[in-house]
Design goal:
Blueprint: E1 4-6, H1 9-17, E2 24-26, E3 44-46, H2 54-66, E4 72-74, H3 76-82, E5 86-90, H4 100-108, E6 117-121, H5 126-139, H6 143-164, E7 172-178, E8 183-184, H7 189-195, E9 199-200, H8 214-220, E10 224-227, H9 234-238
Parallel strand pairs: 1-2, 1-5, 5-6, 7-9, 7-10
Antiparallel strand pairs: 3-4, 7-8
Helix pairs in contact: 5-6
């Protein structure tokens, strides 16, 4: 059986949903679901202080990026010691999680032994999310599991969409991905909002999340504001 390292929370959930949780041997510092993955060693860490307000975090990250530095560290020695056969990472956003470049650099330092297979996820829209699930399943030699998982998810989504059609109105929804500076949610979120019966007011399906102005938010007068800052838990978001 292949040993697996996942360096992205969503990838960890995908690996587990495919039934490969027993083969997971390492994770990122942010992977927390399913709860049992907390037992695994964390192989990444931020190069900035992640505490504080969204404005303070944004300022620290921009200063690191201005110096052309990676935002996260990969513990190459610990990673090699785990000897994974597959590493799942991402190339969608260098700010949200450890990048493909960071992982390739860590693996390039290894000498001897078969190199691990690196699967890099880069979803921009909802179809890409499903395609990435298929790619992870294929890398783990279980394409049928990927097909079955996607079919179950599509059925659940279809049931939600059918129920949402019965709603008497379609509320305007503003999805906020970062608070200060203000950022709306793009990528797959507009499709999910529409599927759930809402009217997405900011952000375009299949495109990166856009910056926005508070004046735009107030002018749109949304019925629902969904606040989901990247990397924040519920308690921190509420604060």
């Amino acid at each position: 059986m292949k040993k697996i390292v996942s360096l992205l929370p969503s990838a960890t959930e995908i690996v587990c949903a495919l039934g490969f949780e027993p083969q997971l041997v390492g994770r990122s510092h942010e992977c927390d679901y399913p709860p049992a993955v907390a037992r695994l060693p964390a192989l990444t860490s931020p190069k900035f202080n992640p505490e504080g307000s969204s404005a303070e975090v944004d300022d620290r990250v921009k200063k690191i990026l201005a110096d052309a530095l990676s935002v996260y560290r990969v513990d190459a020695e610990k990673l090699r010691g785990l000897a994974p056969g597959v590493i799942v990472t991402q190339s969608q956003c260098d700010v949200c999680a450890v990048s493909l470049r960071d992982v390739e650099t860590a693996v390039a330092q290894w000498v001897g032994g078969a190199p691990p297979k690196i699967v890099s996820l880069a979803p921009f829209g909802l179809p890409d999310v499903f395609a990435d699930m298929e790619r992870v399943a294929a890398a783990l030699d279980a394409p049928d599991r990927g097909t079955q998982l996607i079919e179950r998810l599509r059925q659940r989504m279809a049931a939600i969409k059918d129920r949402a059609r019965q709603a008497p109105s379609r509320p305007g929804v503003a999805c906020i991905e970062w608070i200060e500076p203000l950022m709306a949610a793009g990528n797959w979120m507009p499709d999910l909002v529409a599927m759930a019966g809402g009217r997405n007011l900011f952000g375009t399906a299949g495109q990166h999340s856009p910056w926005m102005k508070f004046e735009d938010l107030t002018a749109a007068d949304p019925d629902v504001i969904l606040i989901m800052p990247c990397g924040f838990n519920l308690e921190r978001t509420a604060a």
